[in-house]
Amino acid sequence: MANLVDKTVLMDSQGISRALVRISHEIVEKNKGVDNILLVGIRSRGVPLSERVADAIEKIEGKRPPVGVLDITLYRDDLSTLSYQPIVRPTTMPVDLDGKIIVLVDDVLYTGRTIRAALDAIIDMGRPKAIQLAVLVDRGHRELPIRADFVGKNVPTSSKEVVSVMVKELDNEDKVAIRAEME
User: Would you kindly state where each structural domain of the chain is located, as residue ranges?
Assistant: First the structure.
């Protein structure tokens, strides 16, 4: 990949925190509480984001929803172009999915293909009551009819730009930036 540089910082640590707290309130409101909810973070940055949403919901409701971790590697439609031997990491679900309201959590919604893969993976594991989607950034350019129920920030982008989400847990800092090739 070409050298990318930050073009615009969209969210700093406080901005990310505020967006996740707002998303958490919206999840609680839409579902009238959290009794039947399972948050599922899509590897890799969706996982720490889902943990943060669970923490925020616990502060709001006094009850922390369970959090699952989903690896969609084998469900990707571009698997053959990724690598000869893709790295598959564990998927863990702390509860049975049947009858639950699953809230998928991811960092960026772009073409919708990652979410389609996540939906396939979830359906293979059980029959949830409903599946909702929470994303930190929706950048447009959908190739599939998929939309998020909860969005931290809508950002119109060029398809040549890259939206980069960095989280403390994996990148040692919290930041969302639009990156572009160095000219």
Answer: 4-181
Q: What is the pLDDT of residues 38-81, one digit of tens each?
A: 999 999 999 999 999 999 999 999 999 999 999 998 887 665 55
Class at the top of the CATH hierarchy for domain 4-181: alpha beta
Is residue 83 pLDDT above 70, yes or no? Answer: no
How far is residue 104's CA from residue 130's CA, in Å, rounded to a whole number? 11
DSSP string of 75-135?
G-TTHHHH-SS------B-SS--TT-EEEEEEEEESSSHHHHHHHHHHHHH---SEEEEEE
3-class state of residue 179 by DSSP? strand
161 in Cβ contact with 179 (< 8 Å): yes
Least confident of 1-5, 68-72, 86-90, 166-170: 1-5
